[in-house]
Amino acid sequence: MALQGPEEVGEQVEEPEDLDDQDASSISPAEEITLPPGPGGDEEPEEAFLLPWDRFSSWLHCICVVGFDLELGQAVEVIYPHHSKLSEKEKTSICYLSFPDSNSGCLGDTQFCFRFRQGSNRKSSMGCFLENTDRDAPPCLKREQGHYYGYVYFRQVRDKSLKRGYFQKSLVLISKLPYVTFFHSLLKIMAPEYFEKQEPCLEAACNDIDRWPAPHPGRVLTLPIMGVVIKVRIPTCYDKPGTSQLVQSAQSDSLVSIVLPTIHEVDLFRCFYPVFFHIQMLWELVLLGEALVVMAPSPAESSETVLALVR
């Protein structure tokens, strides 16, 4: 995994910007309706006029399933919701980046993330609304302009019925939000269910997410997903560093399955412990925007180290 200063976050390959797909649009193909209040709290006045799938779009652009074809190599098998738009270059980036670039042959489940360039300038049916939700967010948690994050749950298991001898598939969440811890936790719930029940599971998950309130900084949100309830708080730029504003209440948390104290932080000590004596040099390289290559025993450690370097 390569890093070019603070601009590149956890990406192995970055494609040049695609200027040929300017007509691609991610506006939800539905009429404006009034939706009932979401489960995360009182509804904002502007949220009453959101389009169908706008709540989903405030969290995710789409969900992709990437499999391995003996003739084609990696290929996007499913995009959900089906109306979501991805250019061919974006699909190519997702295909290459969602499979670990490793010859370790490790079996089982692996989670990691990457970032890739958005291939076209898409219009959004809720641009002004998203700007308002980003207004109080810390700089490190604002939506990426011109880039997407890909959060991956990769499964590789032996399967003698396949010619390759292995089952290899990735479930990938595509988002503008750098909520690393949150989306990895979400994948731990969604991916095992998907590998067991296949596409109907994705439809159910997307419908759940489309009922969530928007990720407003400063709010404590309860987010139901596939029978599990996650409680999170989106930080604000006014929070004191090193503090958590998420207060647990035995009464209100009786139905909450998972409480996440942070949505984005990685374990800095665990990432830098193997190179602790070089940490001053690493800081200088990142500060000066010098080229830096990160190699680690696993994709998870590699992507977390890159994120730790640019935080």
TrEMBL record:
Residues annotated as domain UDENN: 61-311
Positions of region (Disordered): 1-46
Residue ranges with Acidic residues bias: 8-23
One Pfam match: Avl9
InterPro entries: ABL9/DENND6_dom, DENND6, Tripartite_DENN
PANTHER family: LD41638P, PROTEIN DENND6A
Family: Belongs to the DENND6 family.
Name under which the protein is recorded: Protein dennd6a
Source lineage: Eukaryota, Metazoa, Chordata, Craniata, Vertebrata
Recorded name of the encoding gene: DENND6A
